[in-house]
Amino acid sequence: MLIVDKKVFSFDNLLLKGNGILLNYICCLMMIPFSPPRIDQKMIDEVVEALKSGWITTGPRTKKFEKQLAAYCKVPAMVCLSSATAGLELMLRWFGVKEGDEVVLPAYTYSATANVVIHCGARPVLVDAGDDFNIHVSLLREAITSRTKVIMPVDIGGWPCNYDAIMQLVNQPEVKSLFNPGNDVQQKLGRIMVLSDAAHSLGATYNGIKTGALADATVFSFHAVKNLTTAEGGAIALNFPAPFKNEELYSCLCIYSLHGQNKDALAKMQKGNWKYDIITAGYKCNMTDLQAALGLVELQRYDDDTLIKRKQVCRFYADFFKTKKWAEVPVQSSGERESSYHLFQLLIKGITEQQRDRIITGIFNRDVSVNVHFIPLPLLSFYKNQGYRMEHYPNAYQLYSREISLPVFYDLTDEQLNRVVNAVADSVEEEIC
User: Fold this and answer.
1) What's the mean pLDDT in 182-211?
2) What is the pLDDT of residue 268?
């Protein structure tokens, strides 16, 4: 039994039948979380059906999810994997990135973007952030050398990078003449590959085109905190120009993601089709049907429900904080771009990193969870020890030092939203006034 305000509730009723009023009431009395996943009966039922089907590894649901994702992004093919990190590394290895090569990426990103480059033996070349948190496109050209094989822009918070400018850059004759292909795949492309880290930006648009169809290849994340979750998971959207055949590349990457085995479990289940071969030393990062079951439910309601709610939350925050002289509200919609509303990255004017940290402590003390996206790579011990210095990326630092990410998730109530903004405002004004 649970007693709240002298009212007695049965745990059987709460757990088995679901008492939404009670759950909301309790949640309002507790710490507001930062980004819990949306797990409802539709999600549970679909996973149960997957379990009952007997297919719990890669199977029909994964293949269906891939097709629906490809149709959603309007790309030729989509490969679902165990994580976005696996997708980034798989694409680098497929392209032949190796020791001696360079990959250009933003200093302002999560470590996964750079870690996969290290895994391949290559060198991350960092570029400072623009005022929108994304890679500063006007600084890209000076980062490109004859060793550059890939540019990895990152859509921070769900805000798409300037892909027109990036694609124009890699296709400039001067830049193409610098490109030094090291294998047949690189020779076939004939230029730097643009591999988009779109871990935050499924559903975002640039010039009316959804992320996924803006670069040569785009990698999404379906981690537990993402807009669309499969618990863990990711996908590669394939959008290479001719003479590449993206459907053939899809088959190749499926093999790469399953130890280099030329038949997955679904194919081997066909009568007399048990015999397989290992045609390359591949990896093990395939998506399971249990993950895809979650994704199928999430994708079905993504545009008409999930994104609408996240947009409402972000607009509530924007309307509140634009009245505060100390606040800088992120741009999440403009003439040619619209965010996926993954994060609401509030900036506080004129404060130091230490003040920001004290403000965050104040917010937590008011029972509201917030976060920081992200600690720039040069501030992390591994990359600092590799010789990267924060002073070389001043804009990335000044953004990081003033940034606070506010809770954005589907089940946020109006009462909770008001608690969030008041906790933030009180904590900021306590520090700076």
Assistant:
1) 98
2) 62
Q: What is the mean pLDDT of the chain?
A: 93
pLDDT (0 to 100) of residue 263: 72
Place of tokens 């085995």: 261
236: β partners: 79, 219
DSSP state of 6: T
CA angle centred on 122, ends 118 and 124, rounded to 5°: 70
Give the list of residues 6+ apart from residue 282 with CB closer than 8 angstroms, or none. Answer: 255, 256, 257, 258, 259, 260, 261
> Domains in the chain, start-ordered, CATH in brackets?
1-30 (no CATH), 44-299 (3.40.640.10), 301-432 (3.90.1150.10)
Whole-angstrom Cα distance, residue 103 to residue 108? 15
User: What does the CA dihedral 25, 29, 35, 37 come to, rounded to 10 degrees?
Assistant: -40
230: nearest Cα among 61, 373, 369, 67: 61
Please report which confidence band the pLDDT of residue 1 belongs to, taking 50, 70 and 90 as the band edges. very low
Query: Which tens digits make up the pLDDT trace of 104-118?
Result: 999 999 999 999 999
Of the chain, the end-to-end C-alpha distance in Å amounts to 46
Tokens, residue 192? 């730097």
423 vs 60, 356, 358, 362, 428, CA distance in Å?
Answer: 46, 14, 13, 8, 9
Structure confidence at residue 262 (pLDDT)? 84
How does pLDDT run across 338-386, given as a tens digit for each residue? 999 999 999 999 999 999 999 999 999 999 999 999 999 999 999 999 9
Alpha-carbon span 92 to 39, nearest angstrom? 33
